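RECORD TYPE: inverse folding
INPUT: structure tokens
STRUCTURE:
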């Protein structure tokens, strides 16, 4: 079963009279339980690819399948619902809500998805314990270290048990030791939950720890050694 499939995805930005083709016939499959590194120089279309995969942008051609479901023909409401329930996002900066506690930040997407307070709290506690933050449930982000904040962001991203996790430099803001630790937690969560992950990174050591590596060349996605 594929978590994500890009099928002949085209994406061209138009500005004035100019067309800037970024993705041209891009194909990619990320299977359930698989962690794929996206390693490409900036400007080649990594963000564009992540936005298309995350249903934040619509491709001009081709299709994006989430858990086998084609999405380009869905309306905006259906795409939003799919994004909320099936896709988790982790960014370089944690974007946690500062006035909420760690547990509340992880509860938030679950309650938006309709879960009750008690269930959301139980799931948040379980996830935060799994990533070693069981003692930090009621701490606000400002009282946590950078690595701890990013671990909360990871827990929040997987709170609704998505099929697909999209990460953009998830440890790019951390020192090498903390980055290593946080990445280990991310990997443990992916492997434990069986979701598929596409992780953009410039960190070649982290890329090597993933199951596969891909890059973008002339708008197409190519496997790397
Ligand atoms: P990366 O994430 O690999 O740095 P992006 O996907 O952000 O690359 O962008 C790829 C190229 O497309 C860049 O040259 C960028 O300037 C251009 N681009 C990105 N978004 C837009 C947009 N909304 N309109 C026009 N050009 C864009």
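DESIGNED SEQUENCE:
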């Amino acid at each position: 079963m594929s978590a994500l499939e890009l099928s002949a995805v085209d994406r061209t930005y138009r500005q004035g009279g100019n067309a800037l083709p970024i993705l041209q016939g891009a194909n990619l499959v990320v299977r359930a339980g698989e962690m794929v590194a996206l390693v490409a120089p900036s400007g080649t279309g990594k963000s564009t690819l992540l936005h298309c995969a995350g249903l934040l942008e619509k491709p001009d051609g081709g299709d994006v399948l989430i858990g086998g479901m084609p999405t380009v023909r869905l309306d905006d409401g259906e795409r939003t619902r799919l994004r909320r329930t099936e896709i988790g996002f982790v960014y370089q900066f944690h974007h946690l809500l500062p006035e909420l506690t760690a547990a509340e930040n992880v509860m938030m997407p679950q309650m938006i998805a309709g879960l009750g307070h008690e269930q959301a709290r139980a799931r948040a506690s379980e996830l935060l314990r799994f990533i070693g933050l069981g003692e930090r449930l009621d701490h606000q982000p400002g009282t946590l270290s950078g690595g701890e904040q990013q671990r909360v962001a990871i827990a929040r991203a997987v709170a609704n048990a998505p099929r697909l996790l999209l990460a953009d430099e998830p440890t790019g803001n951390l020192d090498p030791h903390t980055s290593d630790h946080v990445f280990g937690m991310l990997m443990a969560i992916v492997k434990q939950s069986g979701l598929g992950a596409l992780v953009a990174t410039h960190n070649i050591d982290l890329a090597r720890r993933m199951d596969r590596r891909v890059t973008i060349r002339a708008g197409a996605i190519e496997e790397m050694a």
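NOTES: The chain has a mean pLDDT of 95.
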